[in-house]
Here is the input.
Amino acid sequence: MTDLEADRRRPSPENLARISEVLGVPLEELEALDPRITPEDKEWVDESPAVSQLLRKLRDVPDREDVLAKLQRVVESERKERGGR
Here is the structure.
């Protein structure tokens, strides 16, 4: 647990789910703190030139944290409108 707290190790998805349960914290909240790209997301980036291009453009934006926050709001709004999770 000390290694997790010190950011020297990251829990597997299964362990993250157990930690979520023990702490009484929604799994989605803990997943949102994990900076790793899932294998599914990596595959999507690899197969979609538009995603790779967007990431490269975001990397070069001076205020990218603000832009990312705006994009996140747009995506969340779209998910709610379309009934996604």
